[in-house]
Amino acid sequence: MADLSKPNVPRFSVDVYQNAYLPEGGRAVDAIVTVTAAGGGAPGGAVTAPHPYGPGSGPSAAVVLMVDCSGSMDHPPAKMRNARDATAAAVDTLRDGVRFAVIGGTHVATEVYPGGGRLAVAGATTRAQAKLALRRLSAGGGTAIGTWLHRADRLLASADVAIRHGILLTDGRNEHESPEALRAALEMCAGRFTCDARGVGTDWEVKEVTGVASALLGTADIVADPAGLAADFTRLMENAMGKEVADVSLRLWTPVGTTVTFVKQVAPAVEDLTGRRTEAGPRTGDYPTGSWGGESRDYHVRVEVPPAHIGQEMLAARVSLVVPRPGDASPPGASGSGASTVRDPGAQGLIRAVWTDDLAASTSIAPQVAHYTGQAELAQAIRQGLELRKAGDIDGATAKLGRAVQLAGASGNADTAKLLAKVVDVVDAATGTVRLKAKVAEADEMTLETRSTKTVRVKK
């Protein structure tokens, strides 16, 4: 039987899906790169073949929970009670030995447990103490999310661990610090820890919550009914406890004359990684992907190659992974090219370019590329449609959201299609013919906006 206190270390693999053929003079090469981590995941997972870097005993981890305690959390009073219960449920889900702390967030960041700039070590006694401390949480004060993140970073940085993660809950807008202060906090914390962000109720700003998750390579979502917080926090902590390795980077090498147009995560959600590249050697760049357990993600890579003649072919890019060695606790902010990481020898793929005069071959789009191009357009159409709707541009909003309905239907994204149907009346999904609803519940609109980047995997 597997030791439940020692999760398995995942083994990575890389698969590349593309149509390598280009017409004469063609330059744009698209590929979908699927990265899979197998054999990791939640404690107690199946034991797999030995990892290429040797045996591992599972990662050490630290988690900081940031709970909004501003005055608005008392309206209605049940909201604060639900937040306390949700945080207690998350504490109960902590794996023994994990370092943790709880922060109460207002216009300042208060260490609720254990205090004194320390992290507690999860066990029966500390869980009970933490839940007792949570009972004293009360609402009052403002909201300064950047301040909470700074305090979380200081706490997490004090731990010599492999996985550093935050969970942030807010119910209001970041009104007690400037947007520049929040951006500065996110820039400082990026690469130092990952963070999931949740908005409860409907009085918070979607772009602030999704911005936190995007910058810190976590997830964002809405919990419109505070009664659902405990279940959501439990899932978040279970997912955090399933992470086995942090600071994994997608490494892209390109030959002379080839440039990287973009690198985007496209499943399970759309996230543009292009601007996060760090140089890792001649013509080599690393793109951060965060923490991994047993899971699979898809990335869309586009490179521009030098024009060539019919019959020529070339290696357009080599994709590999840079993974921390098992047992290494890299310092906060360490990148994939750091001394504590090595390139996984079993995880690489090749992106090719072949020039042909076969019109059918050169004009065919790989199904995976077509699917995720549509998913990225879907996310953009939703975002633009909702912005136009708020601005009062009925025709523009109708066109964009109609296109979103069409794309959701064509790609089989049933969850997004259901969310769209709460904002528009669908006349014909195939053609994208819709009418804006006269009245839309604020929670429905915020849910659609928050979840607009979630995608479905390409049909095999």
Q: Quick recap of the structure?
A:
This protein is α+β, with helices and mostly antiparallel strands and 460 residues long. The protein is 30% helix and 30% strand.
Explain what the structure shows:
The protein has 460 residues and is of the alpha+beta class. The chain is built from eleven helices and 20 strands. The strands form four sheets. Strands 4, 5, 6, 7, 8, 9 and 10 form a seven-stranded mixed beta sheet that branches. A six-stranded mixed beta sheet has the order 2-18-17-11-15-14. The longest helix has 24 residues, at 367-390.
Notable characteristics:
seven-stranded mixed β-sheet, globular, 20 strands, alpha+beta, 460 residues, six-stranded mixed β-sheet
Strand content: 25-35%
Shape: globular
**Helical/strand content category:** alpha+beta
Major β-sheet profile: 7 strands, mixed
Helix and strand layout, with pairings?
Layout: E1 11-17, E2 21-22, E3 28-38, E4 61-68, H1 78-93, E5 99-105, E6 109-113, E7 120-121, H2 124-134, H3 145-157, E8 163-170, H4 179-189, E9 194-200, H5 206-215, E10 220-223, H6 229-241, E11 245-253, E12 259-267, E13 271-272, E14 278-279, E15 284-292, E16 295-304, E17 313-324, E18 341-355, H7 359-363, H8 367-390, H9 394-411, H10 414-420, E19 424-428, E20 433-436, H11 442-450
Parallel strand pairs: 2-18, 4-5, 4-8, 8-9, 9-10
Antiparallel strand pairs: 1-3, 3-16, 5-6, 5-7, 11-15, 11-17, 12-13, 12-16, 14-15, 17-18, 19-20
